Amino acid sequence: MKSIEKLAEITTSDISDLLPIILEKVETSARPKLIADQFFKWSNRPAQTGDREVRIPIAGTVSASFVDEGSSLSGSEVESTLSYVTVYPKKIGAAVKITTETLRFKKVDILEMNLEEIGVAIAKKTNELLFNELLGLWDWSAGTYSLASNTETITGQGADATYTLSKSPIVKVISAIKTSDESAVTVSAVDYYDGKVKIADDLSGDNLRITYYYSTRGTYIDANTKGSLSYEDIVNAVVKLKASYYNPDVIIIPEANRADILTDNRFIDASAYGSSEPIRTGEVGKIAGLKVFFDATIENVALVLDTSYCARGYTFRELDMQEDRDILADVHKVVFWKEIGARVIRDDAICAIFNIASDASDL
Q: Is the four-CA dihedral 322, 323, 326, 332 of positive or negative sign?
């Protein structure tokens, strides 16, 4: 396999020979940062005509029953209907400019740094797309990747009042504004589970305009101790999924709650596994039988999931690149593209834990 040091043997007229080396460097830089993709079952987009999206058939619930000798199953127990989930493609792109001087004077360190940044940037955007789907942050009602956000105006109250929002559970408050002068107000506490906020300012005779993200996930629980993630919360989420005959194997935790887990004496560090157990990318250990992952992409919510059933992903376009030379600027522009799509197909195979953020409160 070629390495980026091969640049020292390539002249500026051989930029096309360098492109495979560039692509390899970007791919290898992205791979250690790609956390969310391992929680989806991936396939290449099947060859088909018509629309580019993929429709995944989901089998309906089939029930069993006791039947007396000579009797028949009822129609409702015999029939099983199919539903469908549509996976839409989403393009992710990033670009870098390589100067002629970088090539001419063999500035390997500069090129390597730029390509590493490109790889990490693509990995972060991929994680964002996939984690948003696991969190239920994509609103699929319009058939596009639109964030599930809501803006509403509520009649103001006195200081330290609690306001109930129309959507819940809440993932993140984006802004809170006093409408009379468009000034920001202070959100002193949030009940993410019930969809409530406490505003420190006195808004009597005024209005509050608030914008927030909410989750469309249907299975979720409230943290026992607001403002932190406890072992009991994790066990409760596991029990909830097992009650639906799932076998949860992973928990994804916001970086802000890292200390909650690592200081719990029931946490098992991955270094104690031994050589017989494989370690996934980003896996730091286990707790309550779940493999533990931390990521800064998700905020304010922990996710417990059964990765065997919860989500599917399709690759519509593998990572590739295109190169063009800007002769006026004397640079080579290299653009990287990938196209993927992903959907949760079993909503009840994911349990979200809310009210673990530091500003969470039972309102």
A: positive
Query: Does the CA dihedral 165-166-167-168 come out positive or negative?
Result: positive
Q: And the tokens for 210? A: 């608030």
What is the DSSP secondary structure assignment for residue 360, as one 8-state letter? B
Cβ-based neighbours of 347, under 8 Å, separated by 6 or more: 217, 218, 219
DSSP structure class, residue 46: P
Q: How far is 224 from 233, CA to CA, in rounded Å? A: 6
Half-sphere exposure of 195 (CA within 13 A, CB side): 16
Rounded to 10°, the helix 15-30/108-135 angle is 40
Strand partners, 190: 197, 360
CA 50 to chain centre: 29
Binned average pLDDT, 10 residues per bin, the chain of 363 residues:
51 61 83 91 72 76 74 63 84 85 68 84 94 93 87 96 96 96 96 97 96 94 95 97 95 96 93 81 93 93 95 91 79 88 93 96 95
Give CA–CA dist 306/311, Å, rounded. 9
